[in-house]
Amino acid sequence: MHKVELSYLLTPQRGKNALIRNPLMDLLHAVREQGSISKASKALDLSYRHVWGALKDWEQTLGRELIVWDKGQRARLTEFGEKLLWAERQAQARLAPQIEALTSDIERAFSTAFDDEAHVLTLYASHDAALSALREQAGARGLHLDIRFMGSVDAIAALNAGRCMMAGFHTLDQPGGQSVTARSYRNLLKPGLHKLIGFAHRTQGLMVARNNPLRITGIADLSRPGLRYMNRAEGTGTRVLLDELLAKAGVASSAIQGYQSQEPSHTAVAQAVASDAADAGLGIEAAAREKGLGFVPLAQERYHLVCLKSELPTPQVQALLQELQSRDWQVTLEQLPGYSGRLAQSGKVLSLRATLPWWTYRKEKPGKAKA
Question: What's the distance, Cα to Cα, between the start and end of the chain in Å?
């Protein structure tokens, strides 16, 4: 059975026939109507050589003859050629409503590209419920966020490689220079090159079964014999946070059953707990509430956005800052479980060195002017 591939063209206006066009069907229809390759070529505004060669190529591709090539006779389609035209007419007739809907959907999507008031910002980021809410809210105002969720480390690496305009990652408030967090992110960020933007303030904790039947109260409980933990992938901000909390509590990762397990998002971890595939997992409160789970708060986090300094004045980034600073966004944040609009500093351009105090520089010699 031969397969079908669809393609489309961008034109100032639709042609008379708005359905899906196929060049072979156009050739066959022209030959049948005109009765010769020469006349079909003129009708299609193509050269005889082009039409003749295209038909021969199609015959070789399909393994069937399309035209009866009797010399001196009127050109006509073979039975197979007629069946192809019939099959296409049937398909076009049956699928006309779906084809029209698909065409309209594609046109609406591309209308953004031709709208000077609309903006698209590519954002690679650690999974976060507030980002999903922002995408929906901003899209209605002409700012379209093209978000790809991944680990925090990978997101910043993608920013540095030029694969996105902005990255999203999260840390504890004022993580120390010797912390796991600092070791994970410090080499990826450079004061003077990157600009930090406040986005959200949220609570992370342990997602547990409803009513917390195992009476889990803190990070040390994860080392209990038989307690099953569901982890996030290495390189994710939540995995970094877990390692930070384990180090502070003096708990070895090897003591945790399930430390090597991996799920791609807060929602996936919450589902694992909800389906009794795990007893606990670190995540945001919003994911726990969505699945009807219990939640044991452990840490307050700042979710940061970061871009290159050179991108800060661009229309996309400026539109994002305006959206984040809006009263509507503050209200949206406050309505999400475990999030604070008041503490978020949303849309504020922050000092990288002050917010993440990981870099130290030698003091300038007396009398030396600052650059």
Answer: 70
Q: Give 152-170 pLDDT, tens digit per residue.
A: 999 999 999 999 999 999 9
| Domain match, 68 and 137 both | no
* Domain span holding position 36: 23-111
Q: How many folded domains does the chain comprise?
A: 2
**Please, are residues 256 and 229 in contact by the beta-carbon 8 Å criterion?**
yes
Does 95 lie in the same domain as 130?
no
Q: Is residue 9 situated within a structural domain? A: no
DSSP structural state of residue 368: P
Nearest alpha carbon to residue 324 among 309, 336, 307, 341: 341
If asked whether residues 234 and 274 sit together in one domain, one would say yes
The domain spanning residue 30 has which CATH number? Answer: 1.10.10.10
Cα separation, 14 vs 20, whole angstroms: 11
Residue 236 has which token pair? 């994710």
- pTM here is 0.75
Residues 6+ apart with CB under 8 A from 142: 115, 117, 118, 119, 319
Asked if 134 and 145 count as a contact pair (C-beta separation under 8 A), the reply is yes
What residues in the chain have per-residue pLDDT under 70?
A: 1, 15-19, 361-371
